[in-house]
Amino acid sequence: MDSQPGLPRCYRHPETETGISCVRCDRPICPHCMVSASVGFQCPDCVRGGSGTGHAPDANQPRTLAGGRIAADERFVTKIVIAINLMLFVAVQAVGDRLVDDLALIGYAFLPTGELVGVADGEWYRLLTSAFLHQEIPHFLFNMLGLWVIGGIVEPELGRIRYTALILLSGLSGSALAYLLSPQNQFSLGASGIVFGLIGAWVVLARRRRHDMRPVALFVALSLLLTFTRPGISWEAHIGGLVGGALVTYALVHAPKARRSLVQYTACGLVLLLDLGIVLFRSAALA
């Protein structure tokens, strides 16, 4: 008997084979994407365009792996984050070092007079502003490429709200660890903590999807190698973002459906409290 050709692959998840197709557009869809219709199944795009099936809209609303709503633009938040970074980068080029001095993270920071400055002096906003701030073109371009590529993988799996929480908590976790461990008066800036948070999220998602982990592990290993071998890199921000992003994403995609929102909100709150606890501990030690 001749061997049968492989099954078609889902148009939204090319790694997944499926024998189901949308009854409206006939595109192949996997179990994660298919939405019940009066006859057969429809794809998320056709449902979003209006299916007229007569089912309750919320019951048929397609969901991401983490339970978020599937959006038409799967990089919407990623584009906004890149735009914020771009605006700050242009502002730094126009204004100069003065803006960097005002917004960058300063770990273990003292003036020559012994006076505390930065986060230790109550400027907590630096924990987040530093995560969107760049001064050099190569640094900016490298981080924006990472945001675009890895964000394009992670955002569709989480949905906009959960992905936004991941971005903010990854940046904050990177800043918190940098604040805790950085040498005296060392500046820390850049979206690397966010990018490494997305890398941590990608690892969790790949395991959850049971993908081949070898390419992911190789990418993580190379990223860590660059972190610890290139001079002038804030490895603290990278590791903090990586761990924070992985913890948040694990809670988002493994939360039981019956208590999904409660578990997800609680996990994000605990990561936030951990970051704030690190900052308070460090500030108290400097006082």
TrEMBL record:
<feature type="transmembrane region" description="Helical">
    <location>
        <begin position="216"/>
        <end position="233"/>
    </location>
</feature>
<dbReference type="InterPro" id="IPR050925">
    <property type="entry name" value="Rhomboid_protease_S54"/>
</dbReference>
<dbReference type="GO" id="GO:0016020">
    <property type="term" value="C:membrane"/>
</dbReference>
<keyword id="KW-0812">Transmembrane</keyword>
<keyword id="KW-0645">Protease</keyword>
<feature type="transmembrane region" description="Helical">
    <location>
        <begin position="239"/>
        <end position="255"/>
    </location>
</feature>
<feature type="transmembrane region" description="Helical">
    <location>
        <begin position="187"/>
        <end position="204"/>
    </location>
</feature>
<dbReference type="GO" id="GO:0004252">
    <property type="term" value="F:serine-type endopeptidase activity"/>
</dbReference>
<keyword id="KW-0378">Hydrolase</keyword>
<dbReference type="InterPro" id="IPR035952">
    <property type="entry name" value="Rhomboid-like_sf"/>
</dbReference>
<dbReference type="Pfam" id="PF01694">
    <property type="entry name" value="Rhomboid"/>
</dbReference>
<comment type="similarity">
    <text>Belongs to the peptidase S54 family.</text>
</comment>
<feature type="transmembrane region" description="Helical">
    <location>
        <begin position="76"/>
        <end position="95"/>
    </location>
</feature>
<dbReference type="InterPro" id="IPR022764">
    <property type="entry name" value="Peptidase_S54_rhomboid_dom"/>
</dbReference>
<protein>
    <submittedName>
        <fullName>Rhomboid family intramembrane serine protease</fullName>
    </submittedName>
</protein>
<feature type="domain" description="Peptidase S54 rhomboid">
    <location>
        <begin position="122"/>
        <end position="253"/>
    </location>
</feature>
<feature type="transmembrane region" description="Helical">
    <location>
        <begin position="262"/>
        <end position="281"/>
    </location>
</feature>
<dbReference type="GO" id="GO:0006508">
    <property type="term" value="P:proteolysis"/>
</dbReference>
<feature type="transmembrane region" description="Helical">
    <location>
        <begin position="137"/>
        <end position="154"/>
    </location>
</feature>
<keyword id="KW-0472">Membrane</keyword>
<keyword id="KW-1133">Transmembrane helix</keyword>
<feature type="transmembrane region" description="Helical">
    <location>
        <begin position="161"/>
        <end position="181"/>
    </location>
</feature>
